[in-house]
Each structure stands twice: as C-alpha cells, then as structure tokens.
Give the backbone structure.
Amino acid sequence: MVATRYRTAFQLYPYSKVAAQDQAPVRHPVVIVGGGPIGLALALDLGQKGTPALVLDDHDGAGLGSKAICFAKRTLDIASRLGAGQQMVDKGVVWNVGKVFHDDHKIFDFNLQPEAGHRNPAFINLQQPYFEKYLVDAINSAKADGAPIEIRGRNCVTALENHGRYSTLTVETPDGPYQIEADYLIACDGARSPLRDMMGLSFDGRVFEDNFLIADVHMKADFPTERWFWFEPPFKDSGQSALLHKQPDDIWRIDFQLGWDIDREKELDPARIRARVDAMLSSQAGHVPEYELEWTSIYTFQCRRMEKFRHGNVIFAGDSAHQVSPFGARGANSGVQDADNLAWKLDLVLKGLADDSLLDTYAHEREHGADENILNSSRATDFMTPKSEVSKTFRNAVLDLANKHAFARPLVNSGRLSVPCNYAGFPLFAQDMLEGPDEARPGMTCPDAPHGDGFLLDHLGGGFTLLAIGCSAKAVQAHGLTAQVVEITKPSDALKARYLGTKACAVYLIRPDQHVVARWPEFDPQAVSAALNIAIGKV
C-alpha cells in the first residue's frame, strides 16, 4: 500500500488523480522515483533542456526536520544555473569561516573562500525542506514556460519489472494502483532505496560503531554564523565531539557524539537532551537562553555504495547509490553533482545526439566521486573516533601541534568539507594544451569570476560552450551538437588569474555541467571539433 502520510514542512505537490491511472500503461522517456533534492534537480535540468521528466514521490512535499543543511558552493552554482540558487542564498545562513576547538580552547580557524569574486559563498546552511521548495518553485516556473516536467505526489512505487530496454512500474495511490512504463528509470529514492531492494542489488560498505545525537534548537543567540567543532568538548555529558552551527529561522543545529553502546530510547528523552544542550549553551554563552527543541534524532555513520550505479536502463543517483557520514556535508552535495552529471548525458541520448554508452560514463565518473567522498568521510570518522589508545594519543598530539604550528592543521580532520569532483584523466576529457592555471585544467569545474555586471558562470548556460578569453572564436558543430561561443575581450583581474595565468589568451571547451573538457592557447576549429567528439564519447 501507499506509504503512510507524514507531516510536511511544505505540501509542494498534493495528490491528484491523473488520466493515466485509468488507462493502459503509458511509456515515459524518463521516470524519476524520489522527490528529494536529487530527483527534483534532475527533473528540472532535463525539463529545461526539453526532455520530458516524470517524478513519482510517495509523499506530497518536503518532510519536517532539517535533514541536510549544509549546501556547498558547487551545489549553489548548479542551483543558480537551474534558476533556484539566488532564493537559496537569500534564505540561507551564509558562512565561510569555521573554528576547531579542543576541550576549552580554540586550535585554529579557517576560511573556505578567502578570495572575492564569486557569485556564491563557500557554504550556506539551509534546511532541506527549503532547498526542495525552491527547486519546486523553479520547476513550476519552468513548466509555465513549457518545460515538460510532472510531479505526482503520493504515488508510491510498489513493484518493478525490468524488460531490458524499458521498465514497468506498479504505482500505489489513494485511488488504487496503476502501471506506467519508463525508457529510463532513475532511482533517487534514498539510502533505504526500495528500487534497489526490488532489483536485489547490494549496498556494501562500513558501519561505524558510534552514535550521534542531532538536536535542532529554536532560540535567539548571539553566536556568530560560523561552524564550531569541538574535540573532547568541555561541557558536561557532551561525548567525544560536538558541533554547533546556525540555520535560518533562528534554528541552531547541535550534534553530540555519544559513543557506540548507548540506550537510544534513554538518549532521546527530551529531558536528557535538554541537559546536554543546557550544558553547551551555558559553557559558551554564560547562561542558558530560552529555547525549544524543534527536531531530534540519533544516527549511526555509514559509508556505503553500490558496486555499479547503472544497471541497463535503471540508473541510481544520490543516497540510493551511495551514503556517507554527514560530517563534511558530502551527502546531498554529492547527490546534486550526480544529477548535474546525468542530466545532459541522458538528454543527448534521448535526442539521438549521443550513443547510449555515454550513460556508462555517468556511472564511471560518479562512482569515482562516491569513492572520493567515502574515503574522506571514513578518514574523518576515524580521526574523530579513535579506535585505540594509540590512535587517540596520535590524534591528540596532532591537535596540540595544530594549536601552535600551521603545518599540522591540514592533519586535523573534523570532516573534510565538500568540494567539486575532479574528473581529470577520465575518457571524456582531452589533453591539456594550454598549461594554464591548475584550477581550470581539463576535468575541473569552471571557477567563477566577475564578468561585466555579473559573474562568468551566468554566461555558460546549459549546453557546450566555447569560452574565448582575449581572442576570437566561432561556433563549432559535431554530430548535431553546437558549441556556442562566449567571447571576453576585457577579462577582470580575477578571471585572468583563474583562466589565463601568464598567458595572453585562451580558449576553453566547457561541457553542460560546467566541467572543462579542453583548453588551448588559441582557437583551432579542428581541435575543438575533435574535443567535442571526445566529450560525447565519439572517439
């Protein structure tokens, strides 16, 4: 039966019976199961490119609870391209600075974006329901302009039959079941993915023997909008580590590391949670301000991933494909990069502009991204929770050194924060012919920079782009694709530094997800055409 309704923060797509429920199964090019950040971002990207996307969600909007709250610059750059980024930044709590403490003293602080000249900050804190709401707002705006996107709320997939070239789904609704068919089925249905279970696929990895208490607290407080992390915090009953940072609407996220052998029911007693929160607030503010507990939960770290993200016409993205610990903000941010990577490839395949094998590169690139995130997440967890006295002695020695010496600070790991994935060396990228700035080499995401009255990324769009800086270029076509030209004759100083370095001019080929495919010291149409072929797997 359809999943039990739950309390929603926003009822974004209320249930409504559709004609297809009384018809023979209707075939759709793309069916996305799951209306979270990844499913919505993918549907919006596809729809804006003109490719029909149907989203099935077992609820009717974003659920209560903060869930993901830290959204990185890369995610915000993607959301800006999709038309939802500015609303997120306007609502979110912007932060670039973090501080790391050991016991009652600060070890060091860090700035994730010390240089100016970017549209988006290093991070915002924004409750996941808002993130989803702004994506749905952008979907509704795109639909008004003709984008072929549909979201069906309270449509729960209960059975899957895969036929190789297409899939048949059984969907339960308040008006009973019906069936639909999908050329491509995209599973964005979370870490407990029912679709993954229906296909009998494994989800392997490591479960860390530790528990963390989340408390979202509503209060007025004068703490700065920074990420504060404590190793062995000084406040009573706070566990091995603690974390504090601010969200919109005067909500503060507090995490306490409780250890492995705990009584969950006892630890979720509001009185016990309040005792921990009171101790933290009293230690930091000198008193306990009035507050309310908005949402609490206990979670266990898990780092897992599927062996393969693609299984024929069924493709997995986000938490259904991979899962990491929340320290480092790598979960939702990595999932949005999944959607960003998949959308343009799926669009080209469905339009007949690229072979189906292009979708294999989604799996290869994003499996690499998952491995990178799992490695960082595992290392952070091992540093935060030493498994032996020797490990703890080493960890504390690193913390002591970091308090006095800058060279030791990169060794401190309270969660390496999410950064864009680098695909250098993967098959869809050409040899670097410029030898320019390292941050803009093939495989990297395009760094932003001021340009005109705005920013460079605003001009790159959602297709292949030929960026000519300090020189001229012409549009290049290959296999029905056109690389449109953006010429910049008077680059800003920041743009020069990030794209030219010591060169007088440069030409960049940039793919739709704003990763650099190739670059040259001058425009060469034959070289660009060859690189465009490489970018879509036609070598």
User: Anything to note?
Assistant: Residues 1-6 have pLDDT under 50 and may be disordered. Residues 438-535 form a domain with the Glutaredoxin fold (CATH 3.40.30.120). The longest helix spans residues 358-384. The radius of gyration is 24 Å.
